[in-house]
Specification:
Length: 491
């Protein structure tokens, strides 16, 4: 048989062993098994990244595409759970792909043929039990973690000023005096000398002090230290929660302080309670820094990009003044009133609508469509070498004539589908110049009509239907005007 080999480290493997070592050992085992059976391993898919969802595993996605194309007789792996312990959607996609293509799942323990009802039921049962075991492991780990937190143990990475130690097998912290002296300096400058986070960060950088995770201190780094109760001997949990989307993208959301879990830690404090309390009083009187709570508060969230450095700009909410938007990189470009920027964006939308309706707009950008067409053309060009490889396997006696005809037929069927898709995209490109202008005009008109009645989250969704990004620039200094370039989405 012609087999693919799929390698991925599982939670059942030794966690202290490097993933490369584990995969190399598994590869030797599987290759010895295939050699004894006389099977040929044509491709190896080696997953070195961790991902619960198959979308986060590029090798799995590539293998499923090849399996669906009928390029192998089976996939060789250590066990079924190596293919994935993801949700029902992921498991269903994997099993349906194997069943649709009549591809076997080959393990040293057993060969599973999903076209056989008994094997299909056994496979579904094993993947279900594997998923339940995975969920149980996660629940036990979380329960143990919360017990450690409530008992004063510190389970996260140590903050600046501390290092990680263990006391009676419980993780905690001890003071790193080389760094702790600068933590005391930060609180002293902020509480007793009236210095702001920006001035403190600049002072630390001038001294050559480096942060825990980067080579310099920023104002956000200083603010994070000033509001961290860990420095008073407390253990804080649930400050940030991370959510994973169905596509596997993880986003961090800062929780409001009332949702934090705070317990008395086993570690010694660096800052006394009174100094920390005074720092919080001062901090609450200052402007509110931007952070992600999971709720969109800015209509321009995720759209405005600094033209100088390419980073996303953020809105800052002031207690005593108007809101403004600025670059997170110091000295990069001047800030601007958020309301003035928002009005300027709406003016650009109205002007673009006028240009389209008066037929004064320039040529239509078909970059995305061209990329898709080029991709299909490359896929079609790869069909001929694949056909040659199948012919070579026939000549070597690996394939019988019947198997050869079956493989070539499957390949020609795929070629026909690719060519049909290419023809469809080519026709779309031929008419898109007029069509996408009409679509953009209709969408712009709808956005401008509905914008004023929506909340920030609704306004943000409306803008993102027509705007890809907004490039912002403004020279530093007073009375310098800002400029923006609105890049519209393709239709």
């Amino acid at each position: 048989m012609i087999l693919f080999e799929y390698l991925r480290k599982s939670r059942s493997d030794d966690p202290s062993e490097p993933v490369e070592v584990t995969l190399a050992r598994h590869r030797r085992t599987l290759e010895e098994y295939a050699a004894k059976r006389g099977d040929v391993i044509s491709r190896v898919f080696e997953e070195v990244v961790s991902g619960e969802s198959i979308i986060a595993r590029p090798q799995m996605m590539a293998m499923l595409e090849a399996v669906e194309g009928g390029e192998c007789d089976g996939v060789l792996c250590m066990d079924i759970d190596r293919l994935g312990r993801g949700g029902m959607k992921d498991q269903g996609l994997i099993l349906e792909t194997f069943k649709y293509s009549s591809t076997l799942i080959v393990t040293p323990e057993k060969i599973y043929n999903l076209s056989d009802e008994n094997d299909e039921q056994m496979t579904e049962f094993k993947t279900f039990m594997s998923r339940q075991e995975y969920k149980l492991i996660k629940k036990r780990l979380y329960r143990g973690l919360m017990t450690t937190v409530h008992e004063g143990g510190y389970v996260s990475n140590p903050p600046f000023g501390y290092r990680k130690v263990y006391v009676n097998r419980t993780p905690t912290l001890e003071i790193d005096e080389n760094q702790a002296q600068y933590v005391r300096m930060i609180f002293d400058m902020y509480v007793n000398q009236g210095a702001g986070s920006h001035i403190i960060a600049e002072h630390l950088n001038s001294l050559g002090i480096t942060g825990r995770r980067c080579g310099y201190f920023s104002r956000s780094t200083v603010r994070g230290i000033l509001k961290n109760p860990t420095y008073t001997g407390k253990v804080v949990w649930n400050r940030v929660i991370r959510k994973k989307s169905p596509s596997g993208v993880v986003t961090a959301h800062h929780q409001p302080e009332e949702n934090w879990i705070i317990s008395q830690g086993l570690h010694p404090p660096i800052i006394d309670e009174e100094t920390f309390r005074r720092a919080q009083e001062i901090r609450t009187r200052h402007h509110l820094p931007a952070y992600n709570t999971g709720t969109i508060k800015s209509p321009l969230a995720g759209l405005v990009i600094c033209a100088n450095c390419g980073s996303h700009m953020v809105m800052h909410t002031c207690r005593s003044r108007w809101n403004y938007i600025r670059c997170t990189k110091k000295g990069c470009c001047g800030s601007a009133s958020f309301r003035e920027l928002e009005n300027s964006v709406l003016e650009h939308l109205a002007k673009r609508l006028e240009e389209i309706t008066s037929k004064q707009s320039g040529p239509v950008d078909t970059t995305i469509l061209d990329i898709q067409i080029n991709g299909l053309q490359r896929d079609i060009a790869e069909i001929s070498p694949q056909k040659s490889r199948i012919m070579s396997l026939l000549e070597q006696g690996v394939y019988s004539v019947e198997e050869y005809q079956e493989r070539v037929g499957s390949l020609m069927q795929r070629l026909s589908k690719l060519q049909a898709a290419l023809d469809d995209l080519s026709q779309q490109k031929a008419v898109i110049v007029g069509a996408n202008r009409r679509a953009l005009a209709e969408r712009l008109r709808s956005v401008l009509m509905q914008y004023g009645a929506g909340d920030p989250a609704t306004q943000n969704r409306l803008l993102k239907t027509v705007v890809d990004r907004i490039e912002y620039s403004r020279p530093a200094g007073r009375n310098q005007p800002f400029s923006i370039s609105v890049i519209f989405r393709d239709f």
